[in-house]
Amino acid sequence: MSPDPRTVVRDFRPEDRAAAVQVLASSFEGFGPLDQVVGDGEKAHERRRRMFEMTFRNLVKQHVIIAERDGRIEGVLTYAEWPDCTPSARDSLVAVRIAGPRLLTLIRDFRKVGKAHPRTPHRHLPTLGVRREAQGRGIGGLLMTEYCRRCDEAGLPGYLETIRSADPSRRAQERLYARHGFTVAEVVPMTDD
Hints:
Layout: E1 7-11, H1 17-27, H2 32-38, H3 44-53, E2 62-69, E3 72-81, H4 89-99, H5 103-116, E4 123-130, H6 139-154, E5 158-160, H7 172-179
Parallel strand pairs: 4-5
Antiparallel strand pairs: 1-2, 2-3, 3-4
Helix pairs in contact: 1-3, 3-4
């Protein structure tokens, strides 16, 4: 589907913070790998929101692209350049506090994914989220197009992690990334799903 022509893709502004965190937190509800860290129950949404707030703590190293329509943030994409794309000790400590009893799962998952992470210059896309009501309207594609343009402009390859469902019909993210030229470099088994 073509995105609404009123949708504008732009850089993050400080006043976007609360809305951007909310878009990311709500768009990642039901996302298995993150749910393993934040758990479930009444406090899961708050823990998910706190995880995404970390994204906006160090905007010197982290870049944020916003998709906005009629003054409302519809989607958020974050990226960082190597070697700044690995979590800082402070971010790791905050994540540990949020994970609580799920700490061992968090450590295990970070190690698995960390082994696959490139050790050469690149731009790492850790987060792409679209407001649930706006999904399927081309917002993710607009954000990916801008991310790829910025990678090309800098002469750096793009890198990201995503999930691959055992069910091929549930691979929408993978198809989105493939349309933008990404290929699978490595599959890191996390769960049976």
